[in-house]
Design brief:
With about 55 residues, this protein is an all-alpha fold. The protein is built from 2 helices and no strands. It has one domain (about 5-50).
C-alpha cells in the first residue's frame, strides 16, 4: 500500500524546525465557512485593507 505525502510533509522532513506554514484565505466564502478576515490579519492585509476585495 502506498502512502501519500504532501509537499509540506517532505519539506518538514528535510528542513525540520526551519519549515513553517502560513495559511491564509483570500476573500469570503460563506458556502465554505470562510468569513471576512479580522482587521489587521494577513487575509485582511491581502485585500480588504486596500479595498481590492469586495465584502459580500
Amino acid at each position: 500500500m502506498s502512502a501519500w505525502w504532501p509537499a509540506g510533509a517532505h519539506l518538514e522532513e528535510t528542513l525540520g524546525p526551519r519549515y513553517a506554514v502560513i495559511d491564509s484565505a483570500v476573500g469570503v466564502s460563506d458556502e465554505n465557512g470562510i468569513g471576512r478576515p479580522e482587521d489587521g490579519s494577513i487575509g485582511w492585509l491581502g485585500g480588504f485593507a486596500t479595498g481590492s476585495l469586495v465584502d459580500n
